Amino acid sequence: MSRSIITGEQNARSAVTERIGIGGIGFDRLMAVLCCAFVGGIYLDGWAHDHGLVDQTFFTPWHALLYAAYLACALALLGAVIINRRHTQSWRTAIPQGYELALLGVPLFLAAAEGDLVWHTLFGFEVGIEPLLSPSHLLLAFSGVLIQSSPLRAAWRRADPVASHGWGTLLPALLSLLAVFSVFTFFTEFAHPFVQTRVMAAARSSDEQSWGVANVLLQACILMGFVLLALRRWRLPLGTFTLIFTVNGALMSVLLDQQRLIAGIFLAGIFADLLYWVVQPAAERVGALRLFALCVPLVYFLGYFVTLMLTGGINWSIHLWLGASVMTAIIGPGLSYLLVPPASSVMNTG
User: Fold this and answer.
1) β-strand partners of 282
2) What one-character-per-residue DSSP string does 304-339 give?
3) What residues are paired with 285 via a beta bridge?
C-alpha cells in the first residue's frame, strides 16, 4: 500500500474521530422530527391562506407556528455545533456530518424572512397563486429545504451495510425525504390534481382538460424523482411507500378539504410496497427497476381517478383519464434511465 493511500486513510480516520459529541443517527432522529414539524408549519400556513383565515399582515398565528418550528431546527443545529466545538479543533469539524448545508440554510432562511417582510411592504400581499411564486417565498423554500434535507444527506453519506437498512436506521432519512418531497408538492399546488380537484373533475373544454393532464404529468415526474432517489441508495423497509404516499397525499388533500382522496393514495402506497417486496428493484436489477417505475405512477394516478369517479364523478372520458395514467407509466421508466442508463457497447481502446 502506497504512502499516499495510508496518509489518506489516516486523515479520513482523523476527521471521523474529530466528529464526536452530538451527531449520528440520534441527532438525525431529532432533526427529522423537527423538520417534519417545520413542513407541517408550512402546510398549516397554506391551509390558513386557502381558507381565508389570513388578513393582509405578516404577523399571523400561522406564521408564528411556522417560524417557531424553524427556530427549533436552528437552535438544535447551532446547539450541536457549539457543544461539539468543545471537543474538536475547528468549527468545520464541529458540524455534524451531513448538516453543512443546513448551517447555511439557517441564516439564509432568516434573511429571506426579513426580505419577505420588505417585499410585502414594497409590493403588497400576494393573491391567488402568487404566494407560491413570490421570490421571497421561493428563497424561504430553498433555504428551508437546505435544513429539511439534512437527515437525508447525513444518512446518504453514512457507510452502513445493506443489512442495517431497516426502520431503526432509515426512518430519519425517509422522514427527511418525505419533508422535502412535501415542500416540492406544496409549492406546485397550483398544478397538483389533489388540490385542483374541482377543476379536474369539472373540466369540459380542451384547454381545461389539457391543463388537468399537465398537472398529472408534472406531479408524476416529481413523485418518481423522489422514489427513484431513495431506490438509488437503500434497500427500503416494507411500508416506506405507504408512509410517504399517504402522509404527503393527506397533506395535499386537506389544503382544500379533499380528504376523500386519502384512501385511494393509501391503497396505492400498499401496492407499491408489495410490488417492491416482490420484484426487489435496484440499480443492479435493471429489469425489476424499470417494471417498478412503470407500475407505481400508473397505479397511483389510477387510484386518484377512480376515487374521483366514486366520490362525485369526473367529466373526463375513459380515453382521457386512462390515457393520462398510461402517460405517467411512461414517465417512470423514462426517469429510471437517468438513474441507471443503458449499458454501452462501446469498447475503450485507448
Assistant:
1) 285
2) HHHHHHHTT--S--HHHHHHHHHHHHHHHHHHHHHH
3) 282
Report the half-sphere exposure of 292 (CA within 13 A, side-chain side): 26
Burial bucket for residue 12 (CB in 10 Å: 0-12, 13-18, 19+): exposed
- Give the start-end residues of each E strand in the chain: none
Q: Which three cell numbers stand for residue 271?
A: 401496492
How far apart are the C-alpha atoms of 331 and 290, rounded to whole Å?
Answer: 11
- Collapsing DSSP to helix, strand or coil, 282 comes out as strand
| Assigned C-alpha cell, 183 | 415542500
pLDDT digits (tens, 9 = 90+) for 238-288: 999 999 999 999 999 988 888 899 999 999 999 999 999 999 998 888 999
∠ CA(182), CA(261), CA(141), 5° rounding? 15
Are the C-beta atoms of 148 and 6 separated by less than 8 Å? Answer: no
Written as one letter, the residue type at 320 is L
Cell triple for 216? 398529472
Q: How far apart are CA 47 and CA 41, in angstroms?
A: 10
In this prediction the pTM is 0.87
